[in-house]
Design brief:
With 377 residues, the protein is an alpha/beta fold. The strands form four sheets. An eight-stranded mixed beta sheet has the order 1-2-4-3-5-16-6-15. Strand 1 and strand 2 form a beta hairpin.
Length: 377
């Protein structure tokens, strides 16, 4: 364990400097590959730019641990001494920390006794989209490696530094995105009767969509339906020919999610007919809900003392870790990074998000306990 803090700190800061997006991770992928080789592993390629490392245990049945690798398309806002070297890209969701945590765990495993179970370490691209977990699951590699359960840790500034956040059952929502394109007919503002106003149709559609959660859904089934952008028109003295709306759908219940999609289609069609515009609706389903195995959560609680964890309510966030959980029992949990004293208060996906790398040791230690390895051993 000697030097582990310095190792995870340097690893995180190195990876923070080279943020990359989606599956396009040439520098990150190469760095992870070379580091796994240096630690004594034989990396297996996965999901185009990801890697899987295996440490044989006394049993061939395996426990898997996952870290995501991709960054976000946003400019660095922190003033630490290791800024992003890629303009317009930043590790603002903690994935640099997740990789450093899993590599630190990989190092510790090589220094310790042989665990009872085989250990599978997953370095996965494209969590932020379109979902690298799907490619790994569909490849069958985890089934071949006899994975029986899977864990993932996500850094979370909404919890005190070092505290774990746990939830039994539903934890994060299933999610999707929608795009709506409305096409009318342009005209001079002084002769509006000669046009078909796509902007007016879009405004009416916004109002109709906002009524869906409160009037078309069971109020006891949580859901989010959000319009994030609405763009229409080109000049002030013309009837807008086109309007475009984009948004997101989130729900815990599959039937609720499907009802939202049906209502979106109905409202869009109704507005198109009412205003005489042409309407194109595209809905993209992303990830199912994160649903933690209750028995595995209870096992984690048994490994922790009450001050070390907090039971959380479900969140309307989304994660492709859920795709692993459709195949294997698993737990996705938070590791708190919040520290007002250190200035670490900014949320995930903020250009100012940052954390103290020392917190990663907490995650490594919990992973060791999951395998039954003692702190000394």
């Amino acid at each position: 364990m000697e030097g582990l803090l310095e190792y995870v700190r340097q690893t995180r800061q190195t990876l923070h400097r080279i943020p990359e997006l989606g599956f396009d991770l040439p520098k990150t992928s190469r760095w992870i590959h070379d580091e796994l080789i240096r630690l004594g592993y034989e990396p297996i390629p996965a999901a185009r730019s990801g890697w899987i490392a295996v440490l044989p245990g006394k049993s061939a049945q395996a426990v898997a641990f996952r870290a995501d690798m991709d960054a976000l398309a946003m400019a660095e806002g922190t003033d630490r001494g290791f800024p992003s070297l890629h303009p317009g890209r930043m590790h603002a969701c903690g994935h640099d920390g997740h990789m450093a945590l899993l590599l630190g765990f990989a190092r510790v495993l090589k220094e310790g006794p042989v665990p009872d179970s085989t250990v599978v370490l997953i370095f996965q691209p494209a969590e932020e989209g379109p979902g690298g977990a799907r490619l790994i699951v569909e490849s069958g590699i985890l089934q071949e490696l006899q994975v029986r359960r899977i864990y993932g840790i996500h850094l979370y500034p909404g919890l005190a530094e070092g505290k774990f956040g746990l939830a039994r059952g539903p934890f994060m929502a299933r999610n999707g995105e929608f795009d709506i394109q409305l096409t009318g007919q342009g005209a001079h503002a002084g002769q509006p009767h000669q046009g078909i106003d796509a902007l007016a149709a879009g405004a009416a559609l916004v109002s109709q969509i906002h009524l869906i959660p409160s009037r078309s859904l069971d109020p006891l089934s949580p859901a989010v339906l959000n319009i994030g952008t609405f763009q229409a028109g080109e000049v002030r003295n013309a009837v807008a020919k086109e309007a475009a709306l984009t948004g997101t759908i989130r729900a815990f219940d599959r039937l609720t999610y499907e009802r939202i999609k049906q209502e979106l289609e109905a409202k869009t069609l109704g507005i198109a007919q009412s205003f005489g515009v042409k309407a194109d609706l595209a809905i993209r389903d992303f990830y199912p809900e994160v649903r933690n195995d209750a028995a595995l959560v209870d096992e984690l609680i048994g490994l922790l003392s009450p001050p070390d964890y907090e039971m959380l309510q479900p969140l309307m966030l989304a994660e492709d870790f859920s795709l692993y959980q459709q195949e294997f029992p698993g737990v996705f949990l938070f590791l708190g990074t919040g520290s007002p004293e250190k200035g670490f208060t900014h949320p995930l996906h903020s250009p100012l998000f940052d954390f103290d790398e020392a917190v990663l040791l907490r995650g490594i230690e919990l992973y060791r306990r999951i395998l039954g390895l003692t702190p000394e051993g």
